[in-house]
UniProtKB/TrEMBL annotation, chain A:
This is MPH6 phase. The gene is Mphosph6. One of its GO terms (biological process) is maturation of 5.8S rRNA. InterPro entries: MPP6. Residues 138-148 have a biased composition (Basic residues).
UniProtKB/TrEMBL annotation, chain B:
Belongs to the RRP40 family. GO terms for biological process: CUT catabolic process; exonucleolytic trimming to generate mature 3'-end of 5.8S rRNA from tricistronic rRNA transcript (SSU-rRNA, 5.8S rRNA, LSU-rRNA); nuclear polyadenylation-dependent rRNA catabolic process; poly(A)-dependent snoRNA 3'-end processing; regulation of gene expression; TRAMP-dependent tRNA surveillance pathway; U4 snRNA 3'-end processing. Keywords: Cytoplasm, Exosome, Nucleus, RNA-binding, rRNA processing. This is Exosome complex component RRP40. InterPro entries: Exosome_RNA_bind1/RRP40/RRP4 (IPR026699), KH_dom_type_1 (IPR004088), KH_dom_type_1_sf (IPR036612), NA-bd_OB-fold (IPR012340), RRP40_KH-I (IPR049469), RRP40_N (IPR048541), Rrp40_S1 (IPR037319). Residues 13-86 form the Exosome complex component RRP40 N-terminal domain.
Length: 148, 256
């Protein structure tokens, strides 16, 4: 019981000593000046980062339509990053129209998934509303046991 | 004796290797940053101290050391300095789009000549939609438009024909016919600048297709061989022609 504890204690002591030795030597480089300036200047060997160059594949007067599409796409991608304004996409359908359509849409699509019984119920309800006649009794079909 | 000068003062002038460009001293972070919070991105970048040191320049204790002769350029947005130099020999740089010629097929790997000191390697899986069963149809002698994935002085450069999202976005095997020729690197950068007059003038002539590699190689394809050769000659000569001479030459051609 005690031995395990002792071992872990000695281990901890050894670790602490190691840490003391290592921390002073390992983590500090010999050139503290350059380290300071690392975040200051970034070295870059590519011209693409400095100048605003276009995409290398080009096509003119419709010689290669795919590349013409690609040209528009790639060159505008670079410019979109500069424009940071939030442009809302113009909706094809206005909000009011959307609400109106949605009302009717829910009903029609919902009917598709009704079972046959409920469809009959719906039909009777519609007729009631239209005719304003006496409510007809809805006879629910029940399971008839086959006679022997 | 190396010249020491303020970086901002030498923009647009010729600098020689060995010149030291002094940068404005970085102010103390705590106070200045609070004061300048409202004054815009450029000021903020300067106070934060982020400066891009482009090709032809190296970092040294005092500021920037010039390693290539040329004209010093500066870009205000993001504070970048670089030297606009002239050379014909290409050194592979990561991220550059180049035209390469396939020289050898070694099992799963293609060896591509990009004009550098070593041949670049291109894996057969680095094409869009390539799997182990569905291999791309690349033969020796094909032209490839790709970008460098790895390019440093210690390792063999690697090309890929897809971008980071897995799409080809125009890279891959360049089609049949057409004409490949080599120009200096400065002309390529001039042609790739937005609103290049040479390209705009040429695009009025005939329909044609053009691929520009950052390694100095240009591939042109037009409807007839004659038209292709005309475009090639104009592109090669436009490095040494003034704008007027070029317009005269084009006027003669469109007159014919």
């Amino acid at each position: 019981f005690m031995q395990r504890g002792l071992d872990s204690q000695t281990k901890k002591q050894l670790e602490e000593e190691e840490r003391k030795i290592i921390s002073d030597e390992h983590w500090y480089l010999d050139l503290p000046d350059l380290k300071e300036k690392e975040s200051f200047i970034i070295e870059e060997r590519s011209f693409m980062a400095c100048e605003d160059l276009l995409y290398g594949r080009m096509s003119f007067k419709g010689f290669n339509p795919e590349i013409e599409k690609l040209m528009i796409q790639m060159n505008s991608r670079g410019k979109e990053e500069e424009i940071e304004a939030d442009d809302k996409m113009e909706a094809d359908v206005s909000d009011e129209e959307m609400a109106r359509r949605y009302e009717t849409l829910v009903g029609t699509i919902g009917k598709k998934f009704l079972r046959k019984r409920d469809q009959r119920v719906l039909q009777d309800e519609d007729e009631d509303r239209n005719s304003n006649a006496t409510p007809s009794k809805i006879v629910k079909k029940q399971f008839l046991k086959p006679k022997d | 004796m190396a010249a020491r000068c303020e970086a901002a003062a030498r923009v647009g002038q010729v600098v020689l290797p060995g010149d030291v460009l002094l940068l404005p001293a970085r102010p103390e972070q705590s106070d200045e940053r609070l004061l300048r919070l409202g004054t815009g991105a450029a000021a903020a970048a300067a106070t934060r101290g982020r400066l891009l040191c482009g090709p032809g320049l190296r970092r040294c204790e005092a500021g920037l050391l010039v390693t290539k002769g040329g004209i010093l350029r500066h870009r205000a947005g993001g504070g970048a300095f670089w030297v606009d130099s002239q050379q014909k020999r290409y050194v592979p740089v990561k991220g550059d789009h180049v035209i390469g010629i396939v020289t050898a097929k070694a099992g799963d790997l293609f060896k591509v000549d990009v004009g550098g000191s070593e041949q670049a390697s291109l894996s057969y899986l680095a094409f869009e939609g390539a799997t182990k069963r569905n291999r791309p149809n690349v033969q020796v002698g094909d032209l490839i438009y790709g970008q460098f994935l790895v390019a440093n002085k210690d390792m063999e450069p690697e090309l890929v024909c897809i971008d980071s999202s897995g799409r080809s976005s125009g890279m891959g095997i360049i089609g049949q016919d057409g004409f490949l020729f080599k120009v200096s690197l400065r002309l390529i950068r001039k042609l790739l600048a937005p609103k290049c007059e040479i390209i705009e003038d040429l695009s009025q002539l005939y329909p044609f297709e053009l691929v520009l590699g950052m390694n100095g190689r240009i591939w042109v394809k037009a409807k007839t061989v004659h038209q292709t050769l005309i475009i090639v000659n104009i592109l090669e000569a436009s490095e040494n022609m003034t704008a007027e001479q070029r317009k005269q030459a084009l006027a003669k051609l469109s007159g014919n």
